[in-house]
Amino acid sequence: MVEVTLGRAGRPGAGPVRLNGAVAWLHGRKLAILTVAASLQGVVLLAMIALRALPLLVGDPLVIRVVPVDPRDLFRGDYVVLSYAFSVPAGGAVEGLTRDLATGTRRGWEGRTVYVLLVPEPDGIHWQAERISLQPPAGGKYIRGRAVGDNRLEFGIEAFCVQEGMGRTYERAAQEKRLSAEIALTSSGHAALRGLRVE
After folding, report:
1. Closest to 74 in 3D by CA, of 181, 148, 150
2. C-alpha span between 116 and 142 (Å, rounded)
């Protein structure tokens, strides 16, 4: 008795022959395939680094005030946790966002992109929020972030690595409202931390 294997096209042995041919082709080029895969991973990694560094290279320098956060212990080993007045918007402070009257929560909020229009403070040094919206402002400087909870926004500038022994100094300054963050801000609202300033 002779057993015949039919491929998809109905020809004897067509499937196994194609599969064996594909395996042989891949085996003969495994070094090239591994090289391409490693190169693609390297390109993706470099692109991620470049996107994070872009604001530092092309962004405008701004200074914004840091506000104390809970828990009170801001120092976490080798970095300081930071918060800003616009990180926790007051109820109804986000243009274009409705609240669910039954539960008091913001509908469709978590994960949404938000835009905070920044204006200079009277001292001419610091910048503060003028308004928060779900749409980018038509003009002016603004910072782009996202909602991460019912009433909290993050902008990618919430943690800063510090020198050994400096964490407590920054923590104390934040609690005394004497700490400011120096950021770099692109025209599209992406921000990066440049440093901290104790005033």
Report:
1. 181
2. 5
Regarding beta strands 94-95 and 126-133, do their DSSP bridges make them parallel or antiparallel, or are they unpaired?
A: parallel
With a cut of 90, say whether residue 178 has pLDDT above it: yes
Cα 141–Cα 142–Cα 147 angle in degrees, nearest 5: 175
Question: Residue 100: what are its φ and ψ, rounded to 5°?
Answer: -80, 115
- Look up residue 117 and give its amino acid: L
Q: Which helix (H) or strand (E) holds 100?
A: none
Burial of 90 (0-12, 13-18, 19+ CB in 10 A): exposed
16 band by pLDDT with thresholds 50, 70 and 90: low
* Cα 126 from Cα 141, distance rounded (Å): 13
Which one-letter DSSP state was computed for residue 8? T
Distance between CA atoms of residues 37 and 145, nearest Å: 33
What letter would DSSP give residue 14?
A: H
* pLDDT of amino acid 190: 92
The better pLDDT of the pair 115, 2 is held by 115
* Interval 10-29 mean pLDDT: 68
